[in-house]
Amino acid sequence: MSTPHLEVVNERVRLIVDDKPFLILGVQWDCDSCFSKEEMNPLFPEARRMGANVAALPLYWREVESNVGTYDFTMLEERLKQAREHDLRIVLLWFGTWKNACSFYAPDHVRDDHATFRYARDRDGNELVSFCPTSEVTWQADRDALVGVTRYLRDHDKQNTVILIQIENESGILGSSRCFCENCNRLFREGNYAEQFGPEADEALSVVSFATYIDRIASDVKAVKNIPCYTNVWPSQQVDRIPGTYPSGGGASQMLDLYYEQLNHLDFLAPDVYTDGVTDFGRVCSQYSVAGRPLYIAEHSSSKHGRAERNVFYALASPNAIGFDPWAIDSPYPDMYSEPLVDPIGHEWGRQAYWLRDSYVAIGRAISPIVMYQGTKSFFCFVQEPGEKGTSISGALTTLRIAYHDRDGMARGFIIETNPAEYLLIGSGFSVRFRKKGKDSAYPVKRADFGRFDGDEFHVLHQMRRERLEGEGLPVTLMEPGVIRVTLEISPDS
Ligand SMILES: [Zn+2]
User: Fold this and answer.
1) What CATH number does the domain containing 484 carry?
2) Cβ proximity of 300 and 273 under 8 Å
């Protein structure tokens, strides 16, 4: 088996795990839920029941290196063990120098030693909450700890349970457009940032500094074990963008090209999305997936009004999409006072957990064809928005009339035309009629099988009952989440 990696086929990016195309259907644990077995472990079976194939698990620098220079991998071992027992892969989230641009998860001997580990400074010389991104001392300490983690993975994770490493979390500087320490001021002058970048000069220095810091860590991590590495982004506002109100240097959309120009080892940037509207969600997806860049939604709202169950379809319809990962299974955000996907005490599920499960179960049963057809003209995505009752799509010989029947008003699906007479219906809460193009009649359905894919192979779970065949053609209905393969009766003269 090859190590997990990204590959480009027909100009589209794929994530390959165990030599097969993979889509991350993830759930993330709350930021603080991985310190103890007692809080972390009960969530693994819940994630699996929810149809997830990946657990996105924070790994804390302060946990790994609570004593200077000695590394403790007890809980890392536990993460691997739990994931394997529950047939989940891991996206490992390294909370190192920066977590939401702050230093929360660095060891106390790093956080408290301001003389050795330099904090960023604002224009007036005051210390900020974020570490300076040009401190070689901080970089070395963070790098050594994460390289230690990667050595552990190289030696104890031959089966590649960890498929992706997130280096830092929403890095950048809060409270200032850049760091104004002596070293950063020197780099600003020597790099002619003011002349080169004008009003965006401060943010440009931040981008170059953070991208370089993270990319150099990625280089050393990948030299030990060549796993794909990325970092996640706290996106900027669309209007009134003031760097420092969002983390400056963190890979905001308007700085993406400059960020990517610095990268030689880090594979990609992944946005964290908590916007309400579907339009905003689509905008972020397209911003981060342009120029053949992989699209991974590293965080997404998991609350009841967060639309994760629907936005996962929009996201994965993007040609370069490799995965989707709501934050967090045991804590709702941004609706902080609503119910979480899974209650951490009683393990009751919020309503939205059933919706997400239905999406993940359906998508999880057809990963191979989804990856194969993503972004092609044979791949269709639809999601029921408020007020909508159905839609139509145009196949090679067929007009597909889709009617929505979802009990919660959120029918959603993918349809793949594998050839003019064969369709895959993936999703839940809809029916499809297969009309002859330009004629007032329908193609009879020869066969409809409810099943699932194991790699490229389709396994029939049951044949759909079809009591009669009418000239008009009965619709094929997919109420419960799953996959139906439909074969049409198309004769050469029809
Ligand atoms: Zn600095």
Assistant:
1) 2.60.220.20
2) yes
State the distance from the centre of ligand 1 to the C-alpha of 263, rounded, in angstroms: 20
Asked if residues 336 and 310 have their Cβ atoms less than 8 Å apart, the reply is no
Amino acid at 475: P
User: Among the three residues 329, 364, 399, which one is the final residue of a domain in this structure?
Assistant: 364
Please check whether residue 372 lies inside any domain of the structure: no
What six digits make up the tokens of 41? Answer: 């472990």
Ligand 1 centroid to residue 406 C-alpha, Å: 54
Q: How far is the CA of 264 from the centre of ligand 1 (A)?
A: 23
- CA 147 / ligand 1 centre spacing (Å): 24
Neighbours of ion ligand 1 (CB under 5 A): 132, 134, 179, 181, 184
The alpha carbon of 220 and the centre of ligand 1 are apart by a number of angstroms equal to 23
- Domain carrying residue 433: 379-488
Predicted pLDDT of residue 240: 81
Give the global pTM: 0.96
φ and ψ at residue 20, rounded to 5 degrees: -125, 150
Which residue in this structure is represented by tokens 């009879």? 444
Q: Evaluate whether residue 349 is within a structural domain.
A: yes
| CA of 235 relative to ligand 1 center, distance in Å | 22
Q: Helices 201-224 and 136-156 sit at what angle, rounded to 10 degrees?
A: 30
CATH number where 25 lies: 3.20.20.80
Q: In Å, how far are 405, 442, 489 from 397, measured between CA atoms?
A: 25, 11, 12
Does 371 reside within a domain?
A: no
Residues of the chain short of pLDDT 70, as ranges, are: 466-473, 492-494
Going from the Cα of 135 to the center of ligand 1, the distance in angstroms, rounded, reads 7
Quick count: other Cβ atoms within 10 Å of Cβ 252?
25
Over residues 452-465, the pLDDT tens digits come to 999 999 999 999 87
- What is the Å distance from ligand 1's center to 58 Cα? 27
**From start to end of 341-481, where are the E strands?**
379-383, 390-394, 398-404, 412-419, 422-428, 430-436, 445-454, 457-463, 476-478
350 domain-assigned: yes
Distance 32 CA to ligand 1 centre (A): 28
